[in-house]
Model the fold of this input.
Amino acid sequence: MAACKSGEFLLSCEPILKKINIAPSAVVRDGAHYVGFESGDKAPEPLKAGIIAAGEGSRLKSEGITQPKPLVAVKGVPLIERLIHSYIRFGISEIVCIVNESSLDVKRFVEAKHFPVPVTFVVKTTPSSMHSLFALAPHLAGGRFLLSTVDSVFNEEEFAGFLEYGGARESADGVLAVTNFVDDENPLYVQLDASRKILAFGRTDRPPVPQEPSWVTGGLYVLSPRIFSEMEISLRRDILRLRNFLSHLVEQGYRMEGYPFSRIIDVDHADDIRAAETLLRTT
Done:
């Protein structure tokens, strides 16, 4: 992803807080910690979905796979097409996807499919997945929404349960797919309590507990638009990655929860394609 200064990106995002109707006076805090909003919870509505497909797929390219990552096929179906079909099957009402300025082939591919729900594109080269999320904010700010990376392959029955739980869990600011299947060179570990509340991200220094699973994130998130109230401060603090933004939310008192999946494959390498195909054959 191309580099840019957070200050410059912030200037382009300033209208978003007004668009999503979040004013500083509406945020209720206990000291430094977020508690909630003065307005009451809304009844669950059909979710919109955001897909982050703005990466360059450099690791796949280094292994000889030259097409853009969203068009890499798993069992003969490009990643982005498989993801959109899954979302439509489980009731997603609208999809917005961000691609970088060198991935217009992805946009043309999706538009030629004429999916039965609206699929909108944001074409923007961003410095990180967090900035990609913020670029999607004007499209997702009307209610709880699904966010995913384009390269996550999962069991659809588990995904259906995750979507139902996350969409109805109004008391949580975010529900994250987590798995104890760790097969990533740089996983984001998650510390959960007994209620599946996320206590922190990253490894813990305490001794491991026998039979206690090590949870990692899986690239699927159901989020409240309340999180966008932290957008401006995150940019001013030069928080540069989505994982760091998630840690910031937990540190500020936002309630984030984990939802367990048996296995999620992130397609970053050629071997991951084969692992994803095996997962789909056995579920």
About this structure: Residues 1-6, 19-43 have pLDDT under 50 and may be disordered. The chain is about 35% helix and 25% strand. The longest strand covers residues 215-223.
